[in-house]
Amino acid sequence: MVSRIMKNIDIIIVSLIVTILSTFGKIASDLGMNWYQSLNLPPLTPPSWVFGLTWTLLYIFAACAVIILMRSYKHIGYYRSILGLFALCAILNIVWSYVFFIHNSIAGALIDCIVIEFNLITIIAATWHDARTLALLMLPGAVWVVFALYINYQILFLN
What pTM value is reported for the model? Predict the structure, then answer.
């Protein structure tokens, strides 16, 4: 039993991190929902449940990518750098939730969103040759963040 747990410790740790991230995002959005609902939103803004579902799926994809990285690509020379980019992405997502929903800084959240997108593009570009599956798992996140950038920019413009 203990050896099975130790063999899968990476899955356990990554799952805990993803759970903490998603919980923080949910708490932050709940705390800022009254403020958010008072904003002028762009016409392409999806309903709130779409954000929760989409981010849940994107966190699952990212968790799978990290587990694949940890299990299959430790031999690549830039393994730790890629792992660091994933950690940075997680931190930036927490920062975005705090800046947007708690601090109510639309411009600050937009800047953070731009940095998230550059970080995702860097992960995809850095892993495309050696770890294509990992890069492909991150591609939906990069596409969604472009859409989030549009929404974030429009909210700034409209308010």
Answer: 0.90
